[in-house]
């Protein structure tokens, strides 16, 4: 028994003591973070390009340095493809428009822009984004197929009747569908002043085609986006627009992952090669200058849900 105890102590005498301190910072090369959504209806395409970073300082202080977060230069091209053949190529240029810096960088970041000028046409089957960055041996790239642009129905009813069974409207087909409302009104501030608020009614609509807008759903969304009034403020409803936002499969995967699975900083998945982020196509259909029928308008002004918003009949 004494010999066993002796041998058990020997390893402690032979090997030197180990340190319990860890080097938790492993410097890495920056990884590009790309967010670019192509909407064929846009006159200008905008691209935001940032990067990951590391350093031996406090992370909060490092993130306040715009040079740590943003790329100030890049060679960025958008290519048009017909099946396996590239038919055109155009270059993004630095934009006067600044990327909102958020809570960290003290100065705005950089955006890049490309004038559309009819680039997205029916004969193009896909587009490819290619980004060459200083210090990177391989380009950042991604390719997406183009969705057909949905058309606004030639005839639709501008009057919204929410009662008794809701207002039915046609929503286009697409992998991802989101319904938004742009609500236009006036508020009396010594004079009538125009206001508008845009908010989401439904996200990721599962069934394309006919959809129903219900009174309680609509009015509850409205009161969450317009503040209650005091006795000295009056409001007048002007009109509203219904907007069906259509996204491709990449946009759907990104939205579902970003909202349900990630830490809201970087998407857990994307379609960017040699980087993080998203390259996707979105488009929209707008039903503009819509108004309420008498019963829906009365409910807006005097209803239990929206009465505190101060809308008056006129």
Jot down its keywords:
single chain; 314 residues; alpha+beta; Immunoglobulin-like; 2 domains; nine-stranded mixed beta sheet; 6 helices; globular; disordered N terminus
Give an overview of the whole structure.
With 314 residues, the protein is α+β, with helices and mostly antiparallel strands. The chain folds into 2 domains: 32-146, Immunoglobulin-like (Sandwich), CATH 2.60.40; 159-247 and 285-309, no CATH class. Helices cover 17% and strands 39% of the residues. It has helices spanning 2-14, 59-63, 66-69, 215-223, 249-260, 294-302, and strands at residues 32-38, 44-51, 75-82, 85-91, 93-99, 109-115, 126-132, 140-145, 159-160, 167-171, 176-188, 192-202, 209-213, 235-247, 276-292. Strands 1, 2, 5, 6, 9, 11, 12, 14 and 15 form a 9-stranded mixed sheet that branches. A 4-stranded antiparallel sheet has the order 4-3-7-8, with no helix packed on it. Strands 10-13 form a two-stranded antiparallel ribbon. A hairpin with a 7-residue loop joins strand 7 and strand 8 (140-145). Mean pLDDT is 80; it is low at 1-17.
Could you write a compact summary of the structure shown?
This protein is an alpha+beta fold and 314 residues long. The protein has helices spanning 2-14, 59-63, 66-69, 215-223, 249-260, 294-302, and strands at residues 32-38, 44-51, 75-82, 85-91, 93-99, 109-115, 126-132, 140-145, 159-160, 167-171, 176-188, 192-202, 209-213, 235-247, 276-292. The protein starts with a helix and ends in a 12-residue tail after the last helix.
């Amino acid at each position: 028994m004494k010999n066993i105890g002796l041998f058990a102590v020997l390893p402690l005498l032979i090997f030197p003591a180990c340190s319990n301190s860890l080097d938790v910072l492993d410097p890495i090369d920056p990884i590009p973070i790309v967010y670019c959504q192509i909407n064929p209806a846009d006159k200008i395409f905008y691209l935001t390009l940032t990067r990951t970073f590391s350093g031996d300082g406090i992370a909060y202080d490092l993130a306040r340095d715009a040079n740590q977060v943003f790329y100030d230069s890049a060679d960025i091209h958008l290519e048009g493809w017909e099946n396996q053949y590239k038919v055109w190529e155009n270059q993004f240029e630095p934009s006067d428009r600044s990327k909102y810096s958020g809570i960290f960088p003290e100065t705005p970041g950089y955006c890049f822009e490309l004038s559309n000028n009819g680039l997205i046409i029916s004969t193009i089957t896909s587009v490819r984004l290619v980004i060459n960055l200083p210090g990177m041996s391989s380009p950042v790239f991604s390719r997406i197929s183009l969705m057909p642009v949905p058309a606004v129905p030639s005839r639709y009813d501008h009057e919204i009747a929410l009662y008794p069974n809701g207002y039915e409207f046609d929503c286009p087909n697409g992998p991802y569908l989101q319904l938004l409302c742009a609500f236009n009104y006036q508020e009396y501030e010594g004079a009538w002043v125009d206001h508008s608020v845009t908010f989401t009614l439904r996200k990721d609509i599962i069934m394309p085609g006919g959809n129903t807008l219900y009174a309680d759903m609509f009015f509850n969304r409205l009161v969450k986006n317009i503040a209650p009034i005091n006795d000295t403020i009056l409001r007048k409803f002007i009109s509203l627009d219904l907007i069906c936002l259509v996204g491709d499969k990449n946009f759907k995967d990104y939205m579902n992952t970003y909202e349900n699975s990630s830490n809201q900083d970087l998407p857990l998945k994307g379609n960017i090669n040699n980087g993080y982020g998203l390259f996707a196509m979105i488009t929209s259909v707008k039903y503009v200058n819509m108004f309420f029928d008498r019963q829906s308008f009365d409910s807006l002004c005097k209803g239990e849900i929206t009465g505190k918003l101060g809308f008056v009949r006129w």
